[in-house]
């Protein structure tokens, strides 16, 4: 009798886990349809805590299954198709509430007179659209194991800063984000890398079609023990002369700040929310979000005295790009230093490029802010 009750309990729990999300989250049902083109009807910033819990459950389930499939990691990566040309689209609706949440997460207050720069617009739009990446990873056809992977670098491109002003971002009309992934992985020393692409489009005024105003590339590293015959070394970052950096400012990160950023980008990964969970994953404490630290650092640079060329680039209203590489995790609380490259060590014009670093003992995040040429119109 006890055995029958145990079996019945297990089956009941399994049934609840299987049907619960589909009954209580019907708006997420397209993710489980198996279609190559998934279209959702809600905005990324409308994801609820329950929605995120369901999505994380899907990711955990897939990660467990993949970890048991040892053969997967020894296949020729050139033949591994991750997404089968799948994509996900969803509308983007913004309000003053979203801007306030972003400002609170970065500046700890909503009362600010800070300049709305291109870097600020890029990081706000990145946080706003990031949930689309999470949903893409949860889509049935995705074979990546998100809970066993890390975001190692990002590239942001603000193609139309004139359409991404603080005023226009308060109420996007007809905007939509599309998330897709590269079909094949890249073999690197520590496993596989795959690029996830997010594009934000708005209707073209007075005509048909859309305009891409923002683009972001997330690079995800899936750790794996590769067969030595197919493993390759990581791509070298640069063969150029190392740059010399100078300290320009420092800022502190409070213990609760990752939770504020999570409310903006919906990244409620346990390592960002709980010190206990972070320690279970091998970290010494709760981990800050990488993009959050970049946002805080660049916001601080606005208040600093920079070389004239950097100042012109930072405050430019032209299309801009930024790349960041996450080298070391940042545990909170923390005091971080922001450094910029000395302008006399940069080859070419430093009015078009500003290398920077965020450090805590060593380099934690390395980035470049640059002027984007030949942007889409």
Automatic annotation (TrEMBL):
SUPFAM superfamilies: Thioesterase/thiol ester dehydrase-isomerase (SSF54637). It comes from the Eukaryota. The keyword Flavoprotein does not apply. Keywords: Signal. It holds the Pfam family MaoC_dehydratas. PANTHER family: 3-HYDROXYACYL-THIOESTER DEHYDRATASE HTDX-RELATED (PTHR43841), 3-HYDROXYACYL-THIOESTER DEHYDRATASE X (PTHR43841:SF1). This is MaoC-like domain-containing protein. It comes from Exophiala viscosa.
């Amino acid at each position: 009798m006890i055995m029958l009750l145990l079996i019945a309990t297990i089956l009941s729990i399994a049934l609840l886990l299987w049907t619960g999300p589909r009954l209580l989250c019907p708006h997420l049902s397209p993710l489980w349809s198996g279609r190559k083109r998934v279209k959702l009807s809600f905005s990324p910033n409308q994801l609820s805590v329950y929605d995120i819990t369901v999505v994380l459950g899907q990711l955990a389930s897939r990660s467990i299954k993949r970890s048991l499939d040892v053969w997967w990691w020894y296949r020729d990566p050139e033949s591994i198709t991750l997404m089968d040309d799948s994509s996900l689209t969803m509308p983007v609706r913004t309000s003053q509430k979203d801007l306030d949440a972003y400002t609170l997460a970065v500046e700890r207050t909503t009362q600010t007179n800070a300049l709305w720069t291109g870097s600020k617009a890029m990081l706000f739009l990145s946080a706003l659209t990031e949930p689309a990446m999470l949903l893409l990873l949860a889509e049935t056809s995705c074979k990546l194991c998100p809970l066993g992977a890390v975001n190692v670098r990002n590239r942001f491109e603000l193609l139309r800063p004139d359409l991404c002003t603080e005023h226009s971002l308060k109420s996007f009309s007809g905007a939509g984000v599309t998330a897709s992934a590269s079909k094949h992985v890249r073999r690197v020393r520590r496993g596989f890398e795959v690029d996830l692409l997010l594009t934000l489009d708005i209707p073209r005024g007075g005509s048909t079609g859309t305009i891409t105003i923002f683009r972001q590339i997330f690079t995800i590293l899936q750790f794996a023990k590769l067969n030595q015959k197919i493993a390759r070394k990581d791509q070298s970052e640069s063969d150029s002369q190392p740059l010399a950096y100078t300290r320009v400012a420092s800022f502190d990160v409070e213990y609760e700040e990752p939770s504020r950023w999570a409310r903006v980008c919906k990244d409620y990964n346990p390592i960002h929310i709980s010190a206990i969970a972070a320690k279970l994953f091998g970290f010494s404490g709760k981990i800050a979000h990488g993009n959050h630290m970049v946002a805080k650092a660049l916001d601080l640079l606005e208040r600093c005295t920079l070389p004239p060329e950097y100042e012109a680039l930072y405050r430019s209203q032209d299309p801009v790009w930024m790349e960041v590489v996450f080298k070391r995790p940042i545990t909170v609380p923390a005091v971080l230093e922001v450094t910029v490259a000395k302008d006399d060590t940069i080859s070419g014009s430093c009015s078009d490029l500003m290398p920077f670093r965020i450090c805590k003992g060593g380099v934690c995040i390395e980035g470049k802010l640059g002027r984007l040429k030949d942007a889409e119109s």
